[in-house]
Design brief:
alpha/beta, three-stranded mixed β-sheet, two-stranded parallel sheet
Length: 115
């Protein structure tokens, strides 16, 4: 079972498709769960060569990949503690520090926020 399938199974929400600005279900995704091979595959050779020797960049890349997998599964990461307004998706959960109104959000890039 893939990591994404496991997240979908473990964190399935019977109310999926309803308003989820309450950030439920929410999960903390541990970046270290991803192997270096997975990170390299996601990055591609050129990008991986640029970041592989910098532990901070590798950790940030792991967090980005983990967060993207959660978003694609329709799961709001627990770091998304604020609500912003996206021109395309409407009101969506977002990490702290984002502008309150945006033209595109992280949800746009994974198929849109499912209310």
């Amino acid at each position: 079972m893939s990591l994404l399938e496991a997240a979908r199974k473990e964190f399935s929400d019977p109310d999926y498709g309803t308003d989820r600005t309450d950030k439920s279900p929410s999960v903390s995704f541990v970046s270290s769960d991803l192997s270096r091979e997975e990170l390299k595959k996601e990055a591609g050779d050129a990008f991986w060569d640029e970041i592989k020797d910098n532990p901070k960049l590798v950790a940030k890349w792991a967090t980005t990949i983990s967060e993207s997998r959660l978003l694609r599964a329709g799961i709001t990461p627990d770091t998304y503690t604020e609500t912003i307004h996206c021109r395309k998706c409407g009101d969506v959960p977002a990490p702290p520090g984002w502008m309150k109104r945006v033209n595109n959000c992280r949800w746009c890039f994974v198929g849109g926020y499912q209310k």
